[in-house]
Protein 1
Amino acid sequence: MADILKKIRETSFFKELSDDASSAVAARALARRFRPGDAVMRKGDPADSFFVVLDGHLKIVTTDAKGDEIIINKVGPGESVGEIALMDELPRSAGVVALDDVDALELTKDAFFDLLDDRLDVSLGILRGLSHRLRFSTKYIETAIDWSQKTAEGDYSFLEQTQPLSAAAASDDAKAAQLLSAFFSMARKVKEREDGLKQELERLTFEIDQERRKKEFDQITGTEFYAKLKEQAQELRRKRASG
Amino acid sequence: MTGKIVSIHSFRGGTGKSNAASNLAAQVALTGRRVGVVDTDIQSPGIHVLFGLDEQKMGKTLNDFLHGKAAIREVGYPVGQNTGGGEGRDKLAGKELYLFPSSIKGREISQILKDGVDFNRLNEGLQTAISEFNLDYLFIDTHPGLNEETLLSIATSDILIIILRPDNQDFQGTSVTVDIARSLDVPNLFLAVNKALPKHMNRPEFNKEIERLFNAAVISVMPLSFDMAENASQDLFSLRFPDHEWSKALKDIVPYILNAK
């Protein structure tokens, strides 16, 4: 039981809950076990419960136009699926299938709302957790927007001022961090390519010494031979023009 | 008489001028036009090799004509009747292509250099070649640089194609050549880049840069090619390998010649 409480508090959804509030959640949750390939949720089903993964992994899947399966995401211990749908009451937008042996806690919609009714501390804890996620998401989005604008303007100074984020950071915001990390390396590659092109362009620029050009031209055209040649050429062209 | 004189020139040696001249002449001959090629590079003749003319078989030359020892009719060598082997050259069989070679004998070369080339005599030779062989186009492979024979060739040209490599030294010399050609009122002046590196290929800004420098149209960018080097002037490359990148770029030039006024 202590183990389950710990795992509940390790989830991002319930991380702000006190011991007492976590116990209240555990008391209303159902322990569920899935075998590899078991369907946990089906696309289009009504959203009537959500799951917290304790052990094992789930895949979130949908199908493409040809009916082939596409894996949208993978979910592991400490992560939950279906909690948002419980609140906005839309049907399941994707299916969820067990990838291996999965231990999970299921909280039905009724149990969840009973819990919210009964326990103000649980409600506040969940709100706090959601606010926390929202705040971090907003911050990441703002950073990504800032970087995008700078990249669009060709200002890559943030690449020097910012350290690349470790995609492996085991935080609640690992996915957002991963996004920023991917953005960071994209911007760096764009900059490298741009630098390369700039270099190429420089090498495509040629210079002519105009003074030397004029001097050499004058040397050739200043001779008696040239004056005569020009005259003969003019006469030749006149003749040809008149047929 | 409507035959046009097309001079192929480059400021420095090694630009691939003779290869460009011979292949262009051959490409124009393939379209059914009557074509002549004159080697006015009398100091270092070489275009005859590309047309498979054996040095022992070489009869009367341009030198003989300039010294009054032969008529121009005797100098013209019909390549279409003697393709001299070579998979590419064989495609010229039956085509009207005449080569007017320069002598490769040291004594004759030094003689003509000592005497100099008379404008009127050379010009008479070119005009006679056009009329007697009823040529549509007479190509002149010039000596690199801006010596007197080259100035004569430029002065008499209807079309001047300057071959240049993408490096500053070539550009400097080419700028003077362009100015001279304008001073001599050459009606059609074109630039063709040869031995271009991959970074120059299909780069409109590269062509624009050259056009900006010289105020003349860039009508072809031919790549530096190991396949060309491998061919070692043994055959007419664009006839032997018509689908090669170099051959395609060379063929870009042909319509500019055919459409020139």
Protein 2
Amino acid sequence: MIDWQHFVCLFSCPLIACILVLIFSKKPNLRDAIPGMASLALLYFLQVMKGQLIQGEVIHWKLIYASNFIVHFNVDPMGLLFAQLAAFLWLCSSIYSVGYLRGGGYKHQTRFASFFSLCIFSTLGVALSSNLITFFIFYELLTLSTYPLVMHLQSQEAKKASRQYLLYTLGAGQLLLIAIIWLQQLGIGPYFGAPGRIYDLVASQPVQLTIIFMLFLIGFGVKAAIFPLHSWLPSAMVAPTPVSALLHAVAVVKSGVFGIGRVMGFIFGSYALQTLHLDILVGGLAAFTILFASVRALSETQMKKILAYSTISQLSYIVLGFAIGTQLSIFGSLFHIVAHAFMKITLFFCAGSIQIQSGQTDVTKMSGYARQMPITFGFFSISALSMIGTPLLVGFISKWSFISGSLSSPKHIIFALVYIVSSLLNIGYFFPIIYRSCFDQIPVGDQIKEGSWKLVLPIFVTGLSVITFGLFPDLIFSFYTLSLRASMGFLS
Amino acid sequence: MSLYQQLFVAPLFFSFLSACICAWFSFRPSKKKYTQAVSTFFLFASLLATIGSLIHLSPEPLVYEYGGWPSPWGIVFFGDVFSLSFIFLLSVLAIISWVFAFVHVSLLKQSMFFFLLFALYGMILTQDLFNFYVFLEICSIAIYGLLFDRKHPASAWFTFRYLSINTVAASFYLMGLAFVYSSCGSLNMADLSTLIDTHNLTDKIGIFLISLGFCIKIALWPLHDWLTGAYGSSESHTTAFIAGIVTKVFCIFLIRFFFSVLGGAEYASSTANLILIFSCLSVIIAPYLASKQSDARVLLAYSSISQIAYIGIAVGEGSMLAFHAACFQIFHHAIGKTALFFLASVIHKKTGTYEISNWRYWPSTSKWMTGVIVLCLLSFLGIPPLPGFFVKYWLFQSALQSSHFFVIVSITLGSISTLLYVFFIIEQFFEKQDLNDFASTSETKFRISQKICIASLSILMLFLIGAYPYFESWMKIEGFRP
């Protein structure tokens, strides 16, 4: 295939899915099958692309090229990693959301499915853009296409949460735009991986560069939920669980983290960051966010809130890895994008299942549920263990790289401690849930059972992935190779 | 002089002819069918004439000397890329508004519409500042005639205020002319661009008074009150054309005056800076005021104020990038705002009020029209890759180049306050609907012509996205000294 055909095929999968969903809104079964089929097609095209990338071919597509405004797509290991992840988890969550929405008797399922596809489309754009402007377009599109999903319940609470969400994310988007244009004025970018004049500017314009970096940090930091810009994420949990699972644990927040990675690794590079002492700043903020969010999670009793705070802390793992800047820690960050996605989506799926089957969202009242929902709680426990960093599970690989990466850099040894303390805190908020659900007595009258296959199958697939990718991290999607290659591509 | 070189003044002639015909036959309403056919023919003929002269436009601008009098003495009409592009926009919007609304109004109002059109064509084309003043007054009176609505007593007061404040504005302009004329001895724009001395006090006062007049005309905060009152008290299908294009024509004059006659904002720095500061304030304050409104027309009027203030910022910035931003903003806002006012009038027909809360019936009324509303609003907000984004993109670039950091801050704050009213409207689409209540009033179906009008406006809007890469090389203005 010619390059542009590749990209047209890729982008048309979610876009056509979105249109077809709208067309077949009157036939629920057909409508709900469309996203699943589209995601399979998308996975196929991504596999083809991955084959070519590993053979060393350069695949790119220049869509618009006007003096300062360039829309240009490009496939690199880091982007492909993210795109494959989004596509695979779209498959899982498209099945899950059918079970969830039908089981919970939700309205407006067509709107839900179409905007969900649109979100995947924008995530794909974020992953495959080769420069900051293209990135920005899709980054904003992602915000807007998530808005109706956060608003889905149309309640007062949903309205409030979605307002907060927009104000945070679109406001930050403005700062991002300023930062991008400012960089252009200084003669840098907008392409990722073009070192340009950054080395001269570190000496001549340190203040401007620092301000620009701060603008980037705020711009991406909102979606990456870095303290103190994190508070939209717990409120956005008012959305239906599939939204929280895929978007607020994978697509949206990861695109923020992805952006930070792109800017730190491919625009500034570790030399500029270390000379300007920005690595310490970002690292310090991320470390504080990790500890703060973990402690906040301890005090929550709502399941989705706990998971939200856990997400906040895990996202900062990734940011901290980028900040440390050794190759091992960057590898850890990139692999953790994948690892955390699998773990967190499983946890959210489980939380959603429990909510649909029992109506229960309070973790203190889930006594003995594990005996009635063994599969759900089994995979919940596995993912929680992986989150803590148990060997042979997927979370271990990234945590190992994080800690050994920070130990290998004398300036950043202290951050190894943050990872360890955070793991202990993870035990603190996950184990009581597991313990209570396994060993406490069931309250009389609570009769619950496993949900339909549409709820259980996705949990099974993602939960099994947590184990499989822990044992064979390179299986099918080559996540390990891609993260390794991407970490080598970072500017040093 | 060949025919093609004179073609560009044809719209002026056609619209005047239509106006006279409509006025004459207003005493014989039975002949309305024939006048409508003639007027429609003239409208399309104007569009074709514009397209024809755009196609045959050479780098040398077209000049039409009225009555054969040469340039500094006689009145000269001037057709370059800049003016002909906006004549094209005006012709397209005139046809759309004609089909949507003005076909159905009385003959007298139709004649007012054509007089307005005549004045607008004249204001864009003329090279003579006094001739411009004549068109300005025709424009004010025609708008007064269009907005005045006998059925609504409130409109009498508001339209009268519109007329009086616009007269004040025009008087400022006239005073400014007097100052400029006394020191330069000419009112021809091309002539003035060489004669005017921006360090001379008399000229400075003249420039200031002309700018002040136009700051009232384009309704910069805090001189905006007349606009919201007038738009908020009249039928929005007639307001659509006025809100969409009339204030833009004043902006076109401001751009021509600052970029072409004065040759760039730095030559008139004090006045340009004043415009810049008040535009920055408008960009922040007007959207906030918009989000507090419950009447859709007033909300859209405030939104107009804030969007036009972006043009004010561009004029104050005075760079080439800002010039492109201003021109693009005129296109994008004229199309978007016309569409939104049309949609407001459609939902008014269905529900009987202009309350913004009634917009919650949009998703159940028409899905794609809801989409058009969202498209226009998001473009105002500046979401990439919609046209509004490019305006902001250019303005940011220009402001960073000239280190105007307060412009950057105010555009950023302005975007955030635009967010307030944009999502105030979009949130309505998620409100619970009382369909039983709605069903009784929704008897009136959409006319097919209305659908076509709104669809073509949204297509034009999307077309602008594609036009962006070519816009910088296309749009030019004579006499700009960067």
